[in-house]
Amino acid sequence: MIGGRILHGGDYNPEQWLEYPEILEEDIQLMKKAQVNCVTLGIFSWAMLEPKEGVYDFQWLEEIVDRLGREGIQVILATPSGAMPHWLTEKYPEVMQVQEDGTKNLPGKRQNFCYTSPVMRQKIQSLDRALSQKFGKKENVVLWHISNELGGNFGDSTCHCEQCQRAFREWLKKRYQTLDNLNKAWWGRFWSHVYTDWDQIHSPAPQGEYTMTGLKLDWRRFATEQMSDFVAGEIQAVRTASDLPVTTNFMYFFKGLDYHRLRDELDVISWDNYPFWHKRKDEVTVAMRTAASHSLMRSMKKKPFLLMESTPSMVSWREVNPSKLPGMHMLSSMQALAHGSDSVLYFQWRKSRGSFEKFHGAVVGHKNGSNTRTFREVTQVGERLMGLTDLLDGTVNQPKVAMIFDWENWWALEDVSGPRTDMNYVDSIFLYYQPFWEAGIDVDLVGMDDSLEGYQLVLAPFNYMYKEGYAGKVRDYVRGGGVYVTTYFSGLVDETDLCFLGHHPLEDVLGVVQEEIDAPCEEFPNTFSYQGVQYPAGGLREVIHAKEGTQVLSVYEEDYVKGMPVLTKNAYGEGSAYYLAAEPELNFLRRFTEDLLEELALANPLGVKLPHGVTVSLRIREDQCQSFVFVMNFNNEPAKVEGIGSWTDAETGEICQGMLELGPFQCRIFES
Ligand code: GLA
Ligand code: ZN
């Protein structure tokens, strides 16, 4: 655990309040009352830390860091590259991003810096080095937080300036060596798009090249590479006089950057979580998606992560911003822990007095100090976390099921001009994830480059692209006894978006031959039956043939494909592979998942069927001798879990036998 504790606290932006000493003093008192043990400082402080070029003023920050230290409050120190000061953008306009249509951004907002710009890198790194020297060895500083929500400037998160165009060409030269290789990889002879000079290459743009999918893929890879390099530069700078771990705050399933590449630079994964609770009365969809996001973050390093930001009440940037209902703040905080977080941190500690985020939820509002529902609920979370620290220290989640989620597949798949334009990768991931969430089975979300070792079941929905080496890895996994499930529109292209010719790369393992994919319109429905129940075949229907020896578990029931396989199973080596040819609905997946779990003798820790809206997640001590079962009720009404054995509540010691009654939005933690 970072700093030896489950962290509770969050973004503290005291530079807003330097002229209000009574507020700074009250902050400390209220933090102690709310059981805050850690705050993040400096995220947007560049203008206050370097008021003039090369002139640093760290005194105000040092006073606050030291004051917090005296009160036993730890500090995550951020580097302030997320928002640039006006002196910088005015003197060096090249630090600002250029949009894909060539529009040069004006100063302001945030996260709009050019990650290639040498001036930007040099200026931020000088400041980072000075911060490292000043704060890197302070006892209560525990972690470096590089920048803020990288790439998160809304819309296209890449910079298209001339510096970036030149760097892109250099990057391409390294990747392809010759233009001939590049033209082949991008299939340039089609539409006469052959490049004869590197300078002819420009980033994808709506008014320019937007059809060459190989170019677009490489542009996204390059953007990730540049950003990783930018981050690596900042990390090197903060390491000048410090060997503290580093993190940066990720955002959900953020399409702009391949987090699987960025994670390599980081010691700790952290992310910002703002689910849309209470959009509907039934919270299942939001709870399930949030669980998947936590699982994605945890799977990056297969160890605990930090919930870096969340709101204690409401956000301010959706069209409608409901407050968390009583109990939801506790439940959503426990949900993060259940899936592997070692913290509950907020944006922000105190509501701003002015400007953009003054009505965004915060622990302390504009009025009433600690006498608010939000403050009381935050305090309850803080108290509960204190009690959980010793219990959860050294525990991890170790799911037996993994799902492939890969950024490059995401980019390539959603760029396809193919059977449908509404193919949505992340929604598909959620669709396949939901039955596991409902069954109380945690799932790791791993990339194609990750190891499949230790998993009994791997699902790869919509796995359109196969990266180099991936097919071989899956083959070994199944041969060694793994069960693999993949679907329509999988294994079609290589890393440069060139279609495989002749065979599906896993034809031997899957035991099927793909013929074509159809996307029939609504008035042409089809169905398939599975275990005696009929299900609709969705908007993507592949025509496949089963090879000899492959079991056909279900077939199409209408039209020219009548009698052709929809679901197959092929035994291969010690394991087996399923192929699903038609886009399914959730109900089919529920039944199919149930059968898979039964086949693999996988059950949730309680060993019972869970009622609607209730799920469980398990953290296990690394030596396997103790585990903690989080049972969460996402219904705003009581729920009963029947048929459980005998369980001890890890927090109260109470024994629970046979039946568990959960209150509205309640989470209980049992020990075994
Ligand atoms: C992001 C940012 C924060 C704040 C919150 C508001 O997560 O990192 O600075 O703007 O959004 O929800
Ligand atoms: Zn740029």
Index terms:
single chain; 672 residues; alpha/beta; seven-stranded mixed beta sheet; six-stranded parallel beta sheet; 30% helix; globular; binds alpha-D-galactopyranose; binds zinc ion
Please explain how this structure is put together.
By secondary structure, this protein is of the alpha/beta class. It has a seven-stranded mixed β-sheet, with helices on both faces. Strands 5-4-3-2-1-9 form a six-stranded parallel β-sheet. The two termini are 22 Å apart. The site of zinc ion has 7 residues, from helix 6.
Share in β-strands: 15-25%
Biggest sheet, in brief? 7 strands, mixed
**Count of beta strands:** 26
Secondary-structure content class:
alpha/beta
User: Going across the major beta sheet, what is the strand order?
Assistant: 12-11-13-14-21-20-19
Q: Which bin fits the share of residues in helices?
A: 25-40%
Low-confidence stretches: none
Count helical runs: 17
Distinct ligand kinds: alpha-D-galactopyranose, zinc ion
Terminal CA distance reads 22 Å
Q: Evaluate the radius of gyration.
A: 26 Å
Compute the average pLDDT: 97
Shape label? globular
Outline:
This protein is α/β, with parallel strands linked by helices.
Topology diagram in text:
Layout (H helix, E strand, L loop, with lengths): L6 E5 L9 H13 L4 E4 L4 H4 L9 H12 L3 E5 L7 H6 L26 H18 L5 E5 L16 H15 L2 H7 L27 H26 L7 E2 L1 E3 L7 H4 L7 E3 L11 H18 L4 E4 L18 H11 L4 E4 L26 H20 L2 E2 L4 E4 L2 H7 L11 H15 L3 E4 L10 E4 L9 H10 L3 E5 L19 H4 L1 E7 L7 E5 L2 E5 L3 E6 L4 E5 L9 E8 L2 E6 L5 H14 L14 E8 L5 E7 L5 E11 L5 E8 L4 E5 L1
Parallel strand pairs: 1-2, 1-9, 2-3, 3-4, 4-5, 6-7, 7-8, 11-12, 11-13, 13-14, 14-21
Antiparallel strand pairs: 10-22, 15-18, 16-17, 19-20, 20-21, 22-23, 23-26, 24-25, 24-26
Helix pairs in contact: 5-8, 10-14, 14-17
The chain binds alpha-D-galactopyranose (GLA) and zinc ion.
